[in-house]
Amino acid sequence: MRSVSGPDAVSGWVVRRPGPIASGPLVSVRRPAPEPGPDDLLLTVEACGVCRTDLHLAEGDLAPRRPSTVPGHEIVGRVVAAGAAVTRFRVGDRAGGAWLRGTCGVCPYCRAGHENLCPASRYTGWDADGGFADAALVPADYAYPLPDSESATRLAPLLCAGIIGYRALRRSALPPGGRLGIYGFGASAHLAAQVALAEGATVHVLTRSAQARELALDLGASSAGGAYDPPPEPLDSAILFAPVGDLVPVALAALDRSGTLAIAGIHLTDVPTLNYQSHLFYERNLRSVTSNTREDGRAFLETAARIGIQVTVSPYPLSRAPQALEDLAADRVQGAAVLVPG
């Protein structure tokens, strides 16, 4: 194993008892530093984005897969140790750890380029400890090289919010120069919108947050209205980022003929009964989005660098991770919340 002087112990947060964020599901811990396996990187964490999936895990909307797991899967860090089999990274490199952290590589989905559907897939902050800490282990094959020229807080949201938003945009089948509706406008949506705008789309944002509507217009959206408002014109495509099932029929009804709605979240409240004539007829399409492939990640990071994507960040010290989740739950976060170890 190649290493420099790494940490002897790791401080961070774990989900001890999932429940409403006000009940205190996050607990501060200090543990011995993990030892990298042959294919692992040990990172000192420079920043970790706070994703809505972290909130779902803390509150129990997603059942824990192991006890007392450190959440967080938008990890920017420096390599302080690398396993003997690692060839893509060296000690001192900046690397990013994301949601997808392992697949089998041999199932029909993996062989067909759909590793996001691998039944054996594993996830950072769910199947293994994540980045709500000052150090984290990341499998080298699922890590992304990151530039030294950008701030860690700006890079962190790209590693899930950006990647998932990019996949959701592709799943929405937006045609060239098309009309895109975005429902909910948080971390992922404000990045996906910029990719769509850079590709020539007209973007209409529908969200309950007045602050988010202002950000959408600042980024170039053609309109910004309330979550349940009709957009000013029929939509070719729509993406639902808000985890609100009631918005599914609303978004479907806003689609033009043959339009597509992509649902981007890992968790969604129940969808009400759909009316075939009003919501699905005229070949309207309804699609889900499941995780991402590493190719999605590479393609998005290249696109983000090329278009000079703007990342709106609300930084929090690592010590205030519970407050960051509480603010996210209450829609008080502008753009993306990011934890910074002190």
TrEMBL record:
It catalyses: a secondary alcohol + NAD(+) = a ketone + NADH + H(+); a primary alcohol + NAD(+) = an aldehyde + NADH + H(+). Keywords: Metal-binding, NAD, Oxidoreductase, Zinc. Its cofactor is Zn(2+). Signal peptide: none annotated. Pfam families: ADH_N. Residues 19-339 form the Enoyl reductase (ER) domain. One of its GO terms (molecular function) is zinc ion binding. One of its GO terms (cellular component) is cytoplasm. SUPFAM superfamilies: GroES-like (SSF50129), NAD(P)-binding Rossmann-fold domains (SSF51735). InterPro entries: ADH-like_N, ADH_Zn_CS, ADH_Zn_typ-2, ER, GroES-like_sf, NAD(P)-bd_dom_sf. It is an enzyme of class 1 (oxidoreductase). Its EC number is 1.1.1.1. PANTHER family: ALCOHOL DEHYDROGENASE 1-RELATED (PTHR42940), VACUOLAR PROTEIN SORTING-ASSOCIATED PROTEIN 11 (PTHR42940:SF8). Belongs to the zinc-containing alcohol dehydrogenase family. This is Probable alcohol dehydrogenase AdhA.
